[in-house]
């Protein structure tokens, strides 16, 4: 995996069996707890711990040479994952599109996480902008996959009397990111993307400092959202976009808007900001994350 | 829990069943170990991990709007807690006293931690100064509970030949607090008090920076005290007082005085300082914590 | 253990049964993972977690007053250690040599780690320069043990077709050390050496800041080496030398040279640098660690 794949190394339909696999334990759950402090309560592993781990396992093959993580879609948590489960991850290239500057291209993959080898626990699509090794390498045929704008509402009988479409919820609190916290989380997830760990090289790079893994902000935002969304379980992620880079020292705030209510299922749009409290529900200013997901209100 | 309770929201006798509960595992024990490095050896969970977790669970209901944690008393560890135990916490308001400025009041609670739902594992009283939401809200009847100055000596046959009343022990070493360490610990404990996590807001606040959870200093002081108190188990806390605020970057030192010896039980008064070694046994200068507790010398 | 042993306290043949013992769990494995991010995959505990823990347990008796850790030799991992194992450590003094300045001396010990009390899981020799308490204390008879320059090659049928003697491998990535990370790791290992934890005292000391535990750099270097050495298991350490002190903020890089190939066993020399990428394979400049070890290529 030494140098990772460049844009011209990917082929439509190509399958990566990501190595190594990763067993998640109660120990990993405790480290996750210490880093994010999520109060959402469960005997199973936090869905986002599973998501980040499957994502992280795919980084070595898919996005080691990524310029940017452009988005996620169609993320569904298919089975709860218990402590002690070994996760295996597989990705398939489902789209390719060279950019007009011929220096980079967009790679679309569908990544699946399997629990103890066989049970599909998680699936999601993502697309990343990846550098070419050689600008003169020929462009592949352009294939852009059709991805649903939203996953179907989870079947959840009952209702959400305390939530209404259009409702806005300020999650109030803020969490400041320490360098050790995001680096420890990102390593916990088997994510080897260089920009998160190496201050020496990054000090000479694009931002002059280490970049925080985008998923770190997702987990912080979800943990903050307990204040207002207590009693909900994350069921699916319709889409996510990292609107601006985040660095150690930034303080993350979040607010959510109810996009839809179907029985006991809530479609939520959570925006996270940096260094900007969310009592005025900022839509673009200061926004670093825009996440669209389904949660279900627990009975 | 969005905004937490203010002084006028509390009623004498009121009971809070704190949610969510919290299962403590070997993973939590490992994170606790990495943060404090306590060498006190046990197959059961560290008593202070249990204490901080039950305390932390109570913060959302009791002290989210606290100006200050004023003290603890009558803290007894009733049952050892094994990894894998789910803790539930319940608090009852046992006293109320409005302050003369009418802006704040003191709330006294007794908090109990139950292991796997039924067995009482821990009990303690604490009192906190809480802000009023509305300064014109009427004052409640003043009730100040009588709290014992010390828990009865644990029954511990045997003796403590190497300890004598009046003896002073310098624990020698110092531990510097990193921002990531206290924040991770405090999240591990389910403690959601805002002052510990949000640099953006606190930079504009009272201290200009994040405050370290007082319990963090208790755990550091107890871990330091292994050097001099090896072989002792913590049995009960008679009282504790945080004499000055502590921040990341501070180095904590500690020393202990033997207040009483009853069989194999030692009553100890541990003082922790910041940025001041304890070879001269400082009684007030630099002192940040004054803790009075019972330990038992293990056979 | 209050003040630790000084050079004149050691006697040839003296045996230390280090206390306390330490049970390593899946929780410790998770914290180790979060701090180092090693991708080497195993159901057993990482050999270096076991090494550091046995080493750490010996610090209180052997090296609390060490000026420098001079070297390791003859380190063999004799049995895999599973999560849940309690480790006990024993050291014997195998050599003593006072330095000509009469202020310090070299103590050679062989340290053994036993799993669940009986099974020898790990053995290694190390030598440290230790201060004298009293410069006029008489010098002991000089005994310098003969230590093998290399452990015998592990028996490993098969071959290493992709590796050749003399081959140099740049491990490419860099890891920046945060203060919280090295302190948490070192506490996880039961290592109580003061220089790692106490910024107040160290700010007035030799380096003006806290020193990073040398073993922290070993673990970072090994984790970095997955990029190029994936599929190998660490079997034995022939020797190790810390060439320069390391501090928080330093970024560690690493490269390896293949010294020998015996069947599927590889003898490797890994050098780690600080703030210097290893694409030019630096032999001395910037080098902080020089480690000679045997790994076996997994089938």
Work out the helicity level of chain A.
10-25%
CATH topology of the largest domain in chain A: Thiol Ester Dehydrase, Chain A
Order of helices and strands of chain A: EHHEEEEEEHHHHEEEE
CATH architecture type of the largest domain in chain A: Roll
- The end-to-end span of chain A amounts to 46 Å
3D structure, described in words:
The structure is a homotrimer of 299-residue chains. Chain A is α+β, with helices and mostly antiparallel strands and 299 residues long. Chain A folds into two domains: 7-131, Hotdog Thioesterase (Thiol Ester Dehydrase, Chain A), CATH 3.10.129; 168-177 and 212-297, Thiol Ester Dehydrase, Chain A (Roll), CATH 3.10.129.10. Chain A is built from six helices and eleven strands. In chain A, helix 1 (26-36) packs antiparallel against helix 3 (179-188). The longest helix of chain A has 16 residues, at 47-62. Chain A is globular. The mean pLDDT of chain A is 96. The A-B interface holds A 25-31, 33-37, 39-41, 43, 172-176, 178-181, 184, 227-228, 230, 249, 251, 253, 275, 277 and B 1-3, 19-23, 25-28, 30-31, 178-180, 183-188, 190, 192, 194, 197-201, 210.
Record keyword descriptors for this entry.
homotrimer; about 300 residues; Thiol Ester Dehydrase, Chain A; 2 domains; eleven-stranded antiparallel sheet; about 20% helix; globular
């Amino acid at each position: 995996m030494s140098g990772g794949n460049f844009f011209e190394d990917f082929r439509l339909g190509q399958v990566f069996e990501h190595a190594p696999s990763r067993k998640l334990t109660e120990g990993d759950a405790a480290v996750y707890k210490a880093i994010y402090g999520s109060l959402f309560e469960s005997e199973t592993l936090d869905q986002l711990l599973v998501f980040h781990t499957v994502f992280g396992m795919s980084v070595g093959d898919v996005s080691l040479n990524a310029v940017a993580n452009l988005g996620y879609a169609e993320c569904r948590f298919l089975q709860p994952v218990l402590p002690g489960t070994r996760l295996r991850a597989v990705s398939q290239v489902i789209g390719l599109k060279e950019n007009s500057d011929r220096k980079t291209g967009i790679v679309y993959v569908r990544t699946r996480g399997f629990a103890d080898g066989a049970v599909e626990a998680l699936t999601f699509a993502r697309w990343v902008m990846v550098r070419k090794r050689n600008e003169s390498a020929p462009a592949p045929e352009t294939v852009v996959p059709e991805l649903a704008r939203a996953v179907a509402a989870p079947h959840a009988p009952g209702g959400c009397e305390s939530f209404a479409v259009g409702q806005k919820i300020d999650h109030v609190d803020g969490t400041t990111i320490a360098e050790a916290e995001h680096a420890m989380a990102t390593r916990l997830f088997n994510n080897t993307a260089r920009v998160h760990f190496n201050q020496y090289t990054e000090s000479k790079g694009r931002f002059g400092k280490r970049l925080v893994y985008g998923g770190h902000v997702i987990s912080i935002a979800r943990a903050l959202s307990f204040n207002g969304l207590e009693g909900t379980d994350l069921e699916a992620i319709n889409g996510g976009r990292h609107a601006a880079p985040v660095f150690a020292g930034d303080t993350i705030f979040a607010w959510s808007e109810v996009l839809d209510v179907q029985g006991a299922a809530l479609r939520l749009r959570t925006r996270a900001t940096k260094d900007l409290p969310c009592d005025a529900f900022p839509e673009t200013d200061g926004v670093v994350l825009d996440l669209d997901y389904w949660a279900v209100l627990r009975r």
